[in-house]
């Protein structure tokens, strides 16, 4: 379990951070809360002290004999700054040390995660843009704000991600030990979920993919500093923090969204389960049972192979393309034989091969796989959480970038 410093900035979103604190302590972490002076105008010291079970200080002049800014910063496995206001990030970017939090930011050597929340105008102001860039260049993780309702009547980019998503993000960063954000400056695109091909307004051909592996990949890439576009086909999981989410339904929509997002991507991962066939005709009204008791015949046609298309039409030869394959062994070959053949047929750089059966793969939290490389390499990943497999995939992608 980790020693976390939770730096709270002076924004209205501070009230949501009490929930983040609660989730972190319930996961077993020791959390020292360091609010700014203005944060305490939104949520008072007793709330932070009660939820963390620790004393709360704002100034370096409290308990000076302990030199708290040095001690707290050095001990921290991770510093989480949330909400990160425009003012707080400006002070951090300038290297100011005018309170306990900014002083701590200068003494810590562990990962620092900023979760900004502010009005869209402030987020987009060139001063804030430059400060965020400075912090990222120095190795900090600055989570992209969510789009949605802001304080008051306005909506836009600048919303704090949900507490559960912030907690998941921090968990992912901690799972990497002290490893720095090695995908900063990279744009990665991940597809997730399963497509639906509609027959009529109420029926579709679908599949069992939950989207968990794709979401784990998106979350892991964000925790490593990448700009992430997540193209989700019919997924009902919480939105990962700091990720651009594009929702699609059918294989054709997924194709268009992936081609558009891949245009400036450094890496593309096709984790979605794509329908291979779709009904030739879509009926505008619900298909009724016929009076003579006969069954309808539904004619299907092939959909485009998105992975093969992306592999063959890379905007730059340096782009890394990754596919997934759910396989079962059969009389014609083993799971890995089929995997090797599929890697060659798709033309991608890496293929993550899962053995699937009735009780493996789809809805489960865990996954085991072999990652095959076009260079002949193969990496076995034992049964474990989907986030662990995700990080292995990004290690292999990073090595190829
Ligand atoms: N895929 C794709 N477009 C399709 C079908 C599959 O991009 N129309 C991608 C999947 O996202 C996955 C990989 O191809 O990354 C392999 O998917 P899989 O269903 O195992 O392969 P298929 O080509 O459908 O082969 P099979 O005949 O074994 O079903």
From TrEMBL:
<dbReference type="GO" id="GO:0015941">
    <property type="term" value="P:pantothenate catabolic process"/>
</dbReference>
<dbReference type="InterPro" id="IPR036551">
    <property type="entry name" value="Flavin_trans-like"/>
</dbReference>
<keyword id="KW-0288">FMN</keyword>
<protein>
    <recommendedName>
        <fullName>Coenzyme A biosynthesis bifunctional protein CoaBC</fullName>
        <ecNumber>4.1.1.36</ecNumber>
        <ecNumber>6.3.2.5</ecNumber>
    </recommendedName>
</protein>
<comment type="pathway">
    <text>Cofactor biosynthesis; coenzyme A biosynthesis; CoA from (R)-pantothenate: step 2/5.</text>
</comment>
<keyword id="KW-0460">Magnesium</keyword>
<dbReference type="GO" id="GO:0071513">
    <property type="term" value="C:phosphopantothenoylcysteine decarboxylase complex"/>
</dbReference>
<keyword id="KW-0511">Multifunctional enzyme</keyword>
<dbReference type="GO" id="GO:0046872">
    <property type="term" value="F:metal ion binding"/>
</dbReference>
<dbReference type="Pfam" id="PF04127">
    <property type="entry name" value="DFP"/>
</dbReference>
<dbReference type="InterPro" id="IPR035929">
    <property type="entry name" value="CoaB-like_sf"/>
</dbReference>
<feature type="binding site">
    <location>
        <position position="324"/>
    </location>
    <ligand>
        <name>CTP</name>
    </ligand>
</feature>
<dbReference type="InterPro" id="IPR005252">
    <property type="entry name" value="CoaBC"/>
</dbReference>
<feature type="binding site">
    <location>
        <position position="346"/>
    </location>
    <ligand>
        <name>CTP</name>
    </ligand>
</feature>
<comment type="similarity">
    <text>In the C-terminal section; belongs to the PPC synthetase family.</text>
</comment>
<keyword id="KW-0479">Metal-binding</keyword>
<dbReference type="GO" id="GO:0004632">
    <property type="term" value="F:phosphopantothenate--cysteine ligase activity"/>
</dbReference>
<feature type="binding site">
    <location>
        <position position="286"/>
    </location>
    <ligand>
        <name>CTP</name>
    </ligand>
</feature>
<feature type="binding site">
    <location>
        <position position="342"/>
    </location>
    <ligand>
        <name>CTP</name>
    </ligand>
</feature>
<feature type="region of interest" description="Phosphopantothenoylcysteine decarboxylase">
    <location>
        <begin position="1"/>
        <end position="187"/>
    </location>
</feature>
<keyword id="KW-0285">Flavoprotein</keyword>
<dbReference type="GO" id="GO:0004633">
    <property type="term" value="F:phosphopantothenoylcysteine decarboxylase activity"/>
</dbReference>
<feature type="binding site">
    <location>
        <position position="276"/>
    </location>
    <ligand>
        <name>CTP</name>
    </ligand>
</feature>
<feature type="domain" description="DNA/pantothenate metabolism flavoprotein C-terminal">
    <location>
        <begin position="183"/>
        <end position="398"/>
    </location>
</feature>
<feature type="region of interest" description="Phosphopantothenate--cysteine ligase">
    <location>
        <begin position="188"/>
        <end position="401"/>
    </location>
</feature>
<comment type="function">
    <text>Catalyzes two sequential steps in the biosynthesis of coenzyme A. In the first step cysteine is conjugated to 4'-phosphopantothenate to form 4-phosphopantothenoylcysteine. In the second step the latter compound is decarboxylated to form 4'-phosphopantotheine.</text>
</comment>
<dbReference type="InterPro" id="IPR007085">
    <property type="entry name" value="DNA/pantothenate-metab_flavo_C"/>
</dbReference>
<feature type="domain" description="Flavoprotein">
    <location>
        <begin position="4"/>
        <end position="172"/>
    </location>
</feature>
<dbReference type="GO" id="GO:0010181">
    <property type="term" value="F:FMN binding"/>
</dbReference>
<keyword id="KW-0436">Ligase</keyword>
<keyword id="KW-0210">Decarboxylase</keyword>
<dbReference type="Pfam" id="PF02441">
    <property type="entry name" value="Flavoprotein"/>
</dbReference>
<comment type="function">
    <text>Catalyzes two steps in the biosynthesis of coenzyme A. In the first step cysteine is conjugated to 4'-phosphopantothenate to form 4-phosphopantothenoylcysteine, in the latter compound is decarboxylated to form 4'-phosphopantotheine.</text>
</comment>
<keyword id="KW-0456">Lyase</keyword>
<comment type="similarity">
    <text>In the N-terminal section; belongs to the HFCD (homo-oligomeric flavin containing Cys decarboxylase) superfamily.</text>
</comment>
<comment type="pathway">
    <text>Cofactor biosynthesis; coenzyme A biosynthesis; CoA from (R)-pantothenate: step 3/5.</text>
</comment>
<dbReference type="GO" id="GO:0015937">
    <property type="term" value="P:coenzyme A biosynthetic process"/>
</dbReference>
<dbReference type="InterPro" id="IPR003382">
    <property type="entry name" value="Flavoprotein"/>
</dbReference>
